[in-house]
Specification:
Layout lengths: L1 H25 L5 H13 L3 H12 L3 E8 L5 E8 L5 E6 L6 H14 L3 E6 L17 H15 L4 E7 L1 H9 L8 E7 L5 H13 L4 H15 L8 H4 L7 E6 L7 H10 L4 E6 L7 H4 L1 H14 L2
Parallel strand pairs: 3-4, 3-5, 5-6, 6-7, 7-8
Antiparallel strand pairs: 1-2, 2-4
Helix pairs in contact: 1-8, 3-4, 5-6
Length: 308
């Protein structure tokens, strides 16, 4: 009888640790990664905060509005719409895990607006002003992408649409590219996206805790099943890309310390649609545009122009 109680106590402790691990990974209330990203950006540029504030001020000089739409599971999704001189082309941008749309996209958004693209900067679910309790690493986010597409098409039916995602946002737009999408959606840019949610989940654990415990990951994934209705094991982006229906530009920094560069190469090889791969030498995670803005922007604009 004592052995049974010991087993029950140990099992309860293990389940609690798995649940806590899930909450740290998926809940909007934990921001360890966000604090780390702030540190990296400030280290990269001592005047980062001032520079970002200046770019944001320039963005808000364009005609703009805040937009709220509903996801398929009825949560509210928030974003910012910036309009450029009655443009007929719109780029919808999806940021990465524990990041936000301005940190990720303010600089690129300004360049796109200057080249006569409308820009939508999305707050991903469970981030900033969007609703949702849990981040699902692309599972529900891919459906959110289609909701934003539907909104823009209903609002601007004669616009051509392009999708741009970074990190988790990249994997989300890649998954959405396998869906039947309206003809107005012409191409996708996936910047430093991962090829497997399970693999990136495992890498995050190793980078945060500096050890690997497979059993903990499985317990955490059980909680993803129960609370977030997501199976990270089944969220294999590369295997889904054999069904991709849109031209895709893959971009990755050669010195990415979070999502290995080989993941974009894996996605590129798996992709069955028209595709292009750009590796930015010396760029860390999500820093390709800041590292080489001229090559980055030229490649993106040339790619979009092929599918105008």
């Amino acid at each position: 009888m004592t052995g049974l109680w010991i087993f029950i106590i140990l099992l309860s402790i293990a389940l609690f640790i798995g649940y806590l691990d899930f909450r740290i990974a998926a809940s909007r209330n934990y921001s360890w990664i966000d604090h780390q990203s702030n540190h990296i950006l400030k280290w990269e540029n001592k005047n980062y905060t001032e520079e970002l504030d200046q770019i944001k001020a320039e963005l808000f000089r364009y005609q703009h509005e805040e937009v709220i739409i509903q996801a398929k599971d009825q949560i509210s999704l928030h974003g910012y719409l910036f309009l450029s001189n009655q443009s007929k082309q719109t780029v919808i941008c999806f940021h990465g895990y524990r990041f936000n749309c301005f940190k990720e996209y303010a600089f690129l958004a300004k360049s796109l607006l200057e080249h006569s693209f409308n820009v939508v900067l999305v707050d991903m679910r469970a981030h900033q002003k969007s609703g949702g309790r849990y981040i699902t690493f692309g599972n529900k986010e891919q459906e959110d992408v289609t909701c934003w597409i539907d909104y823009i098409i209903n609002r601007f039916p004669d616009n051509l649409l392009y999708l741009h995602g970074t990190s988790m946002g990249a994997s989300s737009v890649l998954l959405s590219s396998t869906h039947p999408l309206p003809f107005q959606v012409r191409a996708v840019v996936a910047d430093c996206g991962y090829s497997s949610a399970w693999d990136i989940f495992e890498l995050l654990h190793h980078q945060i805790f500096h050890f690997r415990v497979s059993g903990l990951l499985y317990l955490s994934n059980l909680c993803f099943h129960i609370f977030a209705h997501t199976d990270l094991h089944q969220l294999d982006i590369a295997s889904q890309l054999k069904h991709s229906k849109l031209p895709i530009l893959f971009i990755h920094g050669s010195q990415d310390r979070l999502v290995p560069t080989k993941m974009s190469k894996t996605n590129y090889q798996a992709c069955s649609s028209e595709k292009k791969l750009l590796i930015i030498e010396g760029a860390d995670h999500g820093r390709s545009f800041k590292t080489d803005p001229e090559q980055y922007l030229k490649t993106v604009l040339d790619f979009f122009s092929q599918y105008h």
